[in-house]
Write a structure and sequence with these properties.
This protein has 228 residues and is an alpha+beta fold. The protein contains ten helices and three strands; from the N terminus they run H-H-H-H-H-H-H-H-H-E-E-E-H.
Length: 228
């Protein structure tokens, strides 16, 4: 049993836990586990929570928009399960208050802080599911996330799709090229360039190649005066 967990978590969310260890594990960063000689952390719960989140958001969108096709539903779902959205949910719930992390990791980079903040939202969902069951978890997600869907809140702009639509109409070839990659394995920065008919139209950086491509696509759209 992992001792010393803050009971305010259960009071905050009106949870009567069946197994407190799920929640203790949900907030245990790998650095804390290593320092304290524990051979597990929140990553497995994060995996589970990610699957549950995607499934329930997919179901809600499927029912809410009966005329939307697979492509549009996929884009909509991406908006509500992207990192920016998860970070907002996590802060809204105050989940970072319960994070267990080693003192050695207090000088985290901005990228790492963002990643951990989004991770613990999903690991918390995984803990909820295992401890309270599917129905409780669905009600919880409905309360936190579905209202943002109803408000049509935007977290993620798919600039790559926008530039593709523009180029498809004009039969312009798009190509992305990795220019730079630097940083340690868990905190990399990627710099990508976008070419339209082999003319460089912009560069962007991100924590992964997809994010850098989105940034480059945004720059191209700005250079084309299609967005500001």
């Amino acid at each position: 049993m992992i001792m010393g967990f803050n009971m305010n978590l259960f009071e905050r969310f009106s949870i009567e836990p069946n197994n407190e260890d799920y929640y203790k594990l949900a907030f245990m960063h790998g650095s804390y586990a290593t320092v304290h000689g524990i051979n597990y952390d929140y990553e497995r719960l994060e995996f589970l929570g990610d699957s549950i989140l995607n499934m329930l958001v997919s179901e809600y969108l499927y029912k809410k928009y009966p005329k939307y096709g697979e492509g549009k539903l996929t884009k909509l779902r991406a908006n509500y399960v992207c990192q920016a959205a998860l970070i907002e949910y996590s802060h809204e719930l105050g989940l970072p208050d319960f994070l267990k992390i080693s003192v050695d990791e207090m000088s985290l980079t901005d990228n790492e802080v963002l990643s951990i903040t989004s991770d613990i939202f999903e690991s918390f969902l995984g803990a909820l599911f295992l401890d309270q069951g599917f129905a409780f978890t669905k009600r919880f997600i409905a309360k936190i996330i579905f209202r943002h869907i109803d408000e049509e809140k935007i977290y993620f702009h798919d600039y790559k799709s926008k530039i593709k639509e523009y180029c498809d109409v004009r039969e312009i070839k798009i190509r992305y090229e990795l220019l730079e990659e630097h940083g340690v394995p868990h905190d990399k920065t990627f710099i990508m360039a976008i070419y339209l008919d082999e003319e460089e139209m912009g560069c962007g950086k991100g924590r992964n190649k997809k994010e850098a491509e989105q940034s480059a696509a945004k720059k191209a759209l700005q250079n084309l005066n299609l967005i500001w």
